[in-house]
Give the backbone structure.
Amino acid sequence: MASSPPRATRVFTRAWDLNPWRTTPPLNSKDNRTELTMAQNLYQEQPLPSFKSVELQDRNTITSYTHAFGPMSCEYSFANLFAWRNIYDISWTLVHERLVIHDGVEGYTLMPIGPSMAPTELVELSLSLVAAGMPGDISLVPAEYVMAHPELNRDYTLVEDRDFDDYLYTTMALAELKGRKLHKKRNLVSQFNRQYPDARIKTLTPPVRALCLDLAEHLYQANATITRTVSEEHRAMNEAFNYFDALGLGGIAILVQGAVRAFAVFSPLNDTTYDIHFEKSDHEFKGVSQAINHATAVHLKEKCRLINREQDMGIPGLRRAKLSYGPQRLVTTLTLKLKQTGEAQQPTPDPR
């Protein structure tokens, strides 16, 4: 009864013809060096294509992948990648016609976007990242992919983080606010409209953007506890406003008595979905939070079928607010942490 060759040899041999960087053959299966050493030997002469920082000129390339393959996580939005690029040291490259994005601060690589990827190819990528001196962990792996490939448990420790699930809503549900579950939201919007009959909805032209930044700065300075998350989001938002048109952003604001009391900034995530990047409201105006949510959906109902309102980051109040709108579903992803050499299970013998 023949046994299977060592896992690393099977991994690299399988997709050898797909690897455009290599000029030497894969290591012989009899070689008993560790998998990490094998990966380093395989990639040390011609490593992964260099990762580059996210720049405005990369927009067409990156969005061509998000529109063609339709990832649902907000982390793939070009506007988000650019606005947060310096905060998280975000870089990207193309590997086997797939878009590969790396977060240098958190130390993980996002699940590649492109043609369907077999688990063995994912392990190849992880090992080549390690050989290049980078962590081999892969994040934003769709739960459906993990369920379809239980063999991932052999090479990775699977970690789910509920705090970073995206909230996905149907645009029409948010625009119409029908049903008992959304009755309170509908009432708050009506109350706001009655109390502030002079309220106006404006698109984010340059003059209105300046008023939005005034509100954002006021809310930021009034925050009694400025956490790292709050500070970084404020920085990313200002960066997005600095490059608003170049990033293809859109948005609306609610003005009362000439001042912005709430605003939302958004852009297409893929062909079916818009991503709400930033939303701010002055809570001294009762119902304005619900009004901007509703007005955004009304504005987008002819543009997209779904709205991604991003994550709650484990903030209890934010989680309650997002759940209260009855999301169509949560976009659940996992992080695959590459097991250290020797931790992975040995392959089972081939019964043939």
